[in-house]
């Protein structure tokens, strides 16, 4: 195919041929589901666990956010390990590399509270299948292929290592190929996800490729990236010979052989004459329990590892005759490749070079020079994250600033987006998929009880149990049943290792890819005009979502790399229709006007190491901020929330200050920009500047009272009945609404509801929170009207049951039916006595007013549908009055028919300049439950001043 | 229980440094709950609970206040008119004890004249990390005529006892607004004229 242009990312390839036809080549891209169990550590730490001392029983809080329901229908809290895993998964999904399968996310199991599913980009073709296929054809993998494969693996490894990750699970099954034979490493996340193996009850890694230092320090939580280099060496040797020389059915023997090659004295040794391993008869146990295989290996220090046996071994295997092996043979390799393998297999990790050094090996010079993506992938890894898991402060700022700049762009959907379409639009169900594909057999609950295998001796941790489940095919203790019970868990692990199975549950995403291709071919674009008439259900079709995502891709790209002043209004326009959850953080940032590079410049110039005035308060508040949320309750969540809050408080040291509540506001941004602290910071800063600037200052009382008053008056305007009732029971807004306004509802709602609410608030004017608050009151009005203040007080501050969708719709409607000037601050600096109404009215005076004041402009704008009541004397009215205004005597004792006609219409009252009569009359109207009552600020004087010809 | 006994209603306020466990004490007393990660209180929260003594029932209207120093200026709004106050500190923190002493002084100066003040050293379940000695706090309480107890909202140790002791000490004379549960008068809400 002659193609004009080709774009390639994530195994999706787009050709644009000479006729401008777009062809999507994707046939091999899949999404995979890996179930795995993690260690249950139900302890007092488990969040949201409530013990009830009154009756000595224990119960769990009924809150679906924190609980999963187990088979027997018993709610069980998610424990700390799973919170930790969720937080870590966000880091993995932020990493992108050409030679890695894209990590998508983890999903909790609905059935097993100790099980999660890892969703990842995946391919069916793997190195193990390639070896099999070649063997059937009696062919070998050539040296060129080996070179290319090892170069790509090294690139991926050095990227992982740069980002402080160790694969630890490299094996021929985990090296995948896409359709173009590009290497994609898979399953690289498990070791990191499980906190270096701490959170899972099985050892991670393929025994055959386990480095000697990993064997010696198993379960010590150490993450040594050089063990990946060792694994690469083993795999290359495997390719060269066609088999692994130290393979044996007995895992003990495998370990002995690896340790022997690493220069240690063990029960196995390599015979250079026969090129086979044999039992070392001279080797004797130092004591009963003190030999290498049986457990106590702590006395064997890593520094005893040496290259002596390995050199002999590698020299010897060159002597294999061609018919003895099913590979190209070690001796036939280029001497530089031989040397490369020797480097990889240096037993002592201190002497073994790291992945980055090996990439500079002269052997790769040729392939490196012809690699077009060399600079992008090799020199500057493109992780989106700025903070790294282990050491958050050791990064080079300049490096961070430059490495995101070189993003080549074409609108290719990421696997995360494809998964999102599969799950949200096609209603895909992982567990159903596993059953359909025969990975899980539905069985009665009683059969699903986990099977605990007692482990007699463990190499390191005597409390470790192997947890297995009959339903999960990856855990197969098939042929070593007898062995398993007696051997330490690392040795029995060979068959329990989850991630070395070619049988993977793949999600079929062809349907989505076909639609995607159609969408590219038709070159259809989102039609904004059409969107106006689109219902929510129509938005939920896959075609619509694809169009929407495509449009957002384009706009967000333009926003970051093009002209933001052009794209921001369009993003805002589009966001009114729909904000896809996947892109929410980015879209919010664009709406708030956050510039990526500026954000980084500012954030990384703030000194976070210095002790700050609020540090102590942060430490008190962060561990209790939205702790039901997996990210916010994780250790990384705490660290990042602390750093972003601290950055804000250091940056605003002169004018701003931290009030409790800002932690909840900040938390919302940290969740959406997890592992992107500068963006979370910049979003927080922009948000506070827009909505909360006057509140996060040392003295916010005048601002707070102003807000409470405006809110109260607007509540009367829209729901006088509720307002009057609250007034009667002396239920002032300051008793319940302070946390609403000081956090824009972030302190009182769970994160998912904040998202929906803020989707609207961010797009609206800064006065929108008033209307949200009013809508909340209206939603709970039946309850408020029939209850006393005590009950109101208990319920109103916590309104977690709020229907946010209804609330948002209602609030927008209220906003559209409210004159603008009602929400504006009345304190316009003006000392001209002529313009008396422009001067600040003392708040004490305004507190008596149950209604808002409006400006003359709003009178003019709203005159057509409003009732204008002039309550001045008939004489003054005769002299001059506003057109269509009705003269009325303010001394009314009951609702007259004339007044009744005004009901449910906006009522604008024009009062004499003393104001007093106006206030009394308007208050009376509110008491009579008239809606939409407002007083013209300045009365006739303001009309005359504006130059109306009356 | 005698149904005809009198019900007395009192306003009680909780004061103390951030994260010493004010909200947790109240929740334990009112609902019998304990959350490991009780969210911070912004402004104030309101709850009510009754305590039965021999011949009377005491109803507490409890104002639980924000602990952060910044919210201090809001506090008078909540302790104004309060007949009882619990000043809470964390037995692991000397700073929080210092802060508690400041609160006691402020209440003695600006609170209701006959206010009953209780000093509560909370987080007794973490006594292994104690930094404020019982004797020291006890002595301070005695010198200043305060009720004193060390409590644990987590284990519920001394929580009910604390409220009962306060209930006993409160003067149950006709002037202290006796009422009945059915026809209760609105709680003495702060008149928010000066600050808000």
UniProtKB/TrEMBL annotation, chain A:
The lineage of its organism: Eukaryota, Amoebozoa, Evosea, Eumycetozoa, Dictyostelia. InterPro entries: Kinase-like_dom_sf, Prot_kinase_dom, Rab-GAP-TBC_dom, Rab-GAP_TBC_sf, Rab_GAP_TBC_domain, Rhodanese-like_dom, Rhodanese-like_dom_sf. This is RabGAP/TBC domain-containing protein. SMART domains: RHOD, TBC. SUPFAM superfamilies: Protein kinase-like (PK-like) (SSF56112), Rhodanese/Cell cycle control phosphatase (SSF52821), Ypt/Rab-GAP domain of gyp1p (SSF47923). One of its GO terms (molecular function) is small GTPase binding. Residues 44-364 form the Protein kinase domain. Residues 862-888 form the Rhodanese domain. PANTHER family: GTPASE ACTIVATING PROTEIN AND CENTROSOME-ASSOCIATED, ISOFORM B, RAB GTPASE-ACTIVATING PROTEIN 1-LIKE. Residues 578-765 form the Rab-GAP TBC domain. Pfam families: Pkinase (PF00069), RabGAP-TBC (PF00566), Rhodanese (PF00581).
Automatic annotation (TrEMBL), chain B:
One of its GO terms (molecular function) is GTPase activity. Gene3D superfamilies: P-loop containing nucleotide triphosphate hydrolases. Residues 171-196 are annotated as: Disordered. The keyword Nucleotide-binding applies. Keywords: Nucleotide-binding. Transmembrane segments: none annotated. This is Rab GTPase. It comes from Tieghemostelium lacteum.
């Amino acid at each position: 195919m002659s193609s004009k242009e080709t774009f390639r990312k994530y195994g999706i390839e787009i050709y644009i041929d000479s006729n401008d036809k777009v062809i999507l080549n994707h046939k091999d891209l899949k999404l995979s589901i890996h179930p795995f169990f993690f260690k249950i550590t139900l302890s007092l730490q488990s969040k949201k666990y409530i013990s009830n001392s009154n009756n000595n029983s224990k119960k769990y809080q009924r809150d679906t956010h924190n609980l999963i329901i187990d088979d027997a229908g018993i709610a069980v809290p998610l424990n700390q390990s799973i919170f930790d895993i969720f937080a870590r998964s966000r880091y993995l999904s932020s990493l992108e590399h050409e030679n890695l399968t894209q990590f998508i996310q983890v999903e909790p199991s609905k059935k097993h509270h100790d099980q999660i599913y890892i969703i990842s980009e995946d391919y069916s073709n793997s190195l193990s299948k390639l070896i099999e296929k070649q063997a059937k054809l009696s062919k070998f993998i050539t040296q060129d292929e080996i070179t290319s494969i090892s170069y790509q693996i090294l690139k991926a490894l050095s990227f992982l290592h740069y980002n402080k990750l160790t694969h630890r699970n490299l094996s021929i099954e985990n090296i995948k190929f896409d359709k173009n034979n590009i290497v994609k490493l898979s399953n690289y996340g498990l070791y990191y996800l499980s906190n270096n193996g701490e959170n899972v009850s099985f050892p991670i890694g393929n025994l055959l490729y386990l480095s000697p230092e990993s064997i010696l320090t198993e379960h010590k939580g150490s993450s040594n990236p050089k063990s990946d280099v060792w694994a690469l060496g083993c795999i290359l040797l495997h390719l060269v010979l066609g088999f692994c020389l130290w393979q044996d059915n007995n895992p003990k023997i495998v370990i002995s052989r690896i340790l022997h090659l690493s220069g240690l004295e063990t029960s196995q040794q390599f015979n250079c004459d026969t090129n086979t391993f044999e039992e070392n008869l001279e080797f004797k146990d130092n004591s009963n329990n003190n030999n290498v295989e049986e457990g106590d290996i702590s006395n064997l220090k890593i520094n005893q590892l040496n290259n002596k046996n390995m050199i002999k071994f590698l020299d010897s295997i060159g002597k294999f005759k061609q018919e003895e092996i099913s590979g190209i043979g070690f001796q036939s390799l280029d001497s530089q490749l031989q040397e490369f393998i020797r480097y990889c297999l240096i037993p002592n990790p201190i002497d073994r070079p790291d992945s980055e050094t090996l990439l500079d090996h002269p052997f790769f010079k040729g392939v490196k020079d012809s690699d077009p993506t060399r600079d992008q992938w090799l020199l500057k890894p493109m992780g989106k994250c700025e903070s790294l898991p282990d050491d958050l402060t050791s990064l080079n700022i300049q490096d961070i600033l430059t490495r995101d700049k070189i993003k080549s762009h074409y609108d290719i959907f990421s696997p995360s987006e494809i998964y999102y379409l599969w799950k949200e639009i096609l209603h895909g169900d992982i567990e159903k998929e596993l059953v359909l594909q025969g990975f899980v057999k539905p069985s009665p609950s009683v059969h699903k009880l986990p099977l605990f295998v007692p482990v007699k001796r463990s190499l390191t941790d005597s409390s470790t149990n192997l947890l297995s489940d009959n339903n999960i095919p990856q855990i197969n203790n098939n042929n070593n049943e007898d062995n398993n019970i007696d051997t330490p868990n690392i040795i029995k692990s060979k068959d329990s290792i989850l991630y070395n199975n070619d049988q993977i549950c793949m999600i079929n995403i062809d349907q989505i890819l076909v639609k995607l291709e159609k969408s590219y071919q038709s070159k259809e674009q989102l039609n904004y005009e059409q969107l106006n008439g689109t219902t929510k259900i129509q938005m939920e079709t896959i075609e619509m979502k694809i169009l929407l995502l495509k449009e957002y891709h384009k706009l967000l790209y333009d926003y970051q790399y093009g002209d933001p002043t052009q794209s921001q209004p369009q993003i805002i326009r589009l966001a009114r229709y729909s904000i896809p959850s996947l892109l929410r953080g980015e879209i919010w940032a664009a709406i708030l006007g956050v510039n990526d590079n500026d954000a980084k410049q500012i954030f990384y110039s703030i000194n976070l190491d210095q002790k700050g005035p609020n540090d102590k308060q942060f430490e008190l508040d962060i561990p209790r901020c939205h702790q039901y949320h997996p990210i916010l309750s994780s250790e990384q969540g705490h660290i990042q929330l602390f750093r972003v809050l601290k950055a804000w408080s250091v940056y605003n040291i002169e004018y701003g200050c931290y009030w409790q509540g800002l932690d909840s506001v900040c938390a919302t941004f940290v969740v959406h920009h997890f592992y992107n602290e500068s963006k979370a910071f910049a979003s927080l800063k922009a948000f506070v500047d827009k909505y909360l600037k006057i509140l996060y200052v040392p003295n916010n009382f005048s601002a707070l009272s102003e807000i409470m008053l405006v809110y109260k008056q607007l509540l009367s305007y829209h729901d006088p009945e509720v307002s009057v009732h609250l007034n009667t029971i002396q239920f002032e807004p300051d008793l319940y609404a302070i946390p609403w306004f000081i956090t824009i509802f972030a302190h009182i709602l769970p994160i998912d509801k904040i998202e929906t609410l803020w989707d609207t608030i961010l797009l609206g004017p800064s006065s929108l929170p008033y209307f949200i608050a009013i809508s909340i009151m209206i939603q709970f009005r039946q309850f408020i009207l029939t209850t006393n203040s005590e009950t109101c007080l208990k319920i109103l501050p916590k309104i977690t049951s709020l229907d946010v969708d209804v609330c948002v719709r209602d609030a927008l409607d209220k906003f559209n039916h409210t004159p603008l000037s009602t929400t504006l601050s009345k304190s316009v600096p003006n000392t001209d006595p002529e313009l008396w109404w422009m001067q600040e009215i003392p708040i004490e005076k305004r507190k008596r007013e149950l209604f808002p004041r409006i400006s003359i402009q709003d009178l003019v704008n709203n005159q057509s549908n409003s009732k204008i009541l002039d309550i001045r004397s008939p004489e003054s009215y005769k002299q001059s009055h506003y057109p269509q205004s009705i003269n009325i005597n303010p001394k009314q004792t009951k609702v007259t028919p004339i007044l009744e006609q005004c009901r449910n219409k906006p009522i604008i009252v024009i009062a004499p300049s003393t104001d007093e009569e106006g206030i009394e009359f308007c208050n009376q109207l509110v008491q009579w439950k008239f809606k939409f009552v407002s007083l013209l600020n300045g009365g006739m004087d303001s009309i005359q001043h504006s130059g109306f010809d009356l | 229980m005698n149904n005809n006994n009198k019900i007395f209603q009192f306003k009680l306020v909780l004061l103390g440094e951030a994260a010493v466990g004010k909200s947790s004490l109240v929740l334990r007393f009112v609902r019998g709950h304990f959350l490991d990660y009780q969210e911070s209180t912004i402004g104030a929260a309101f709850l009510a609970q009754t305590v039965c003594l021999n011949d009377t029932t005491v109803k507490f209207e409890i104002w639980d206040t924000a602990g952060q120093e910044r919210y201090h200026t809001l506090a008078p709004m909540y302790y104004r008119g309060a007949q009882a106050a619990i000043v809470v500190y964390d037995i692991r923190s000397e700073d929080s004890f210092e802060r508690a002493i400041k609160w006691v002084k402020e209440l003695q100066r600006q609170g209701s004249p006959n206010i009953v003040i209780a000093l509560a050293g909370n987080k007794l379940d973490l006594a292994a990390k104690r930094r404020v000695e019982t004797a020291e706090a006890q002595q301070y309480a005695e010198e200043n005529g305060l009720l004193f107890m060390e409590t644990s909202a987590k284990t519920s140790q001394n929580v009910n006892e604390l409220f009962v002791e306060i209930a006993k000490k409160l003067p149950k004379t006709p002037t202290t607004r006796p009422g009945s549960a059915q026809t209760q008068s609105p709680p003495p809400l702060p008149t928010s004229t000066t600050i808000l």
